[in-house]
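input
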Amino acid sequence: MKPLNTRNTVVMVAALAVLMCMTRFSHFGTAIHLPDASMAVFFLGGLYVRRHLAFLGFVALAGALDFVSVRYAGTSDFCITPAYSFLLPAYAVLWYAGRVFAGRLQASAGSLAMAAGVALLANTLSFVISNGAFYWLGGRYAEPHFAEYVARLMHWAPMFVRTSMAYVVVALVVHAVVARALGQRDAGRMAGA
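output
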């Protein structure tokens, strides 16, 4: 896929920022809150926006939202540990996996399936980085050991990865629908010329 023009880049950044702002406060969602879309936002940002500075902007937004949620909204600070800094490489895996695949993205079923596969791998690796850092370096477990870590990883990873993948798949379906609509519109213009 060609890089987005400036206008569409601004629209995409705004849409992803709104999605993060609307969902960052609830990991799995509730009856009134959507589940956290942050992991998907970073993958989709890499896929569509691609810019390094935008990545840093989204990292800053995530940090600011976490600060506000802990300081002013009563969210627990349980996850704010020295391991919090490992969100940077965890999010970088997502962003740069999307960015690397961006040039191959097309509206074909095969390309969209490959994009979903890349997203699945990136989400899994990202979760392993953030969860592993939290478990081993966060100071929340008095005597961490590998068997317990693997058990916790197997418990939490499917929920986080599944949530992110739901957002990514919806975005890829929207991509296919929009690409098809634009293709038909452009074909109609050429036929009428």
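quick obs: The chain has one domain: 6-192.
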